[in-house]
Design a protein that fits this description.
Elements: E1 6-9, H1 12-20, E2 25-28, H2 35-43, H3 57-62
Parallel strand pairs: 1-2
Organism: Cladophialophora psammophila CBS 110553
Protein name: Alcohol dehydrogenase-like C-terminal domain-containing protein
InterPro entries: ADH-like_C, NAD(P)-bd_dom_sf
Length: 65
């Protein structure tokens, strides 16, 4: 189906967890300057679906971008 699962969080320990659960990629918001550009590079055509479990309104609002 071409599904690419990605995770977003902060910290190397989260990256290890996400990848151990089978994610194709992990984006660390504490290190990345332009997360949206990184996602676009990985997906080419943007996300077709987003599951967002955000702790802040700002993060939740930016998820569909």
């Amino acid at each position: 189906m071409g599904i690419r699962v990605t995770g977003f969080n902060g910290g190397n320990n989260k990256a290890d967890l996400v990848k151990s659960l089978g994610a194709d990629a992990f984006f660390d918001f504490t290190k990345g300057k332009d997360i949206l550009a990184q996602v676009m590079e990985l997906t080419t055509y943007r996300a077709h679906a987003v599951l967002c479990f955000a702790a802040t309104k700002q993060t939740y609002a930016s998820a569909p971008e």
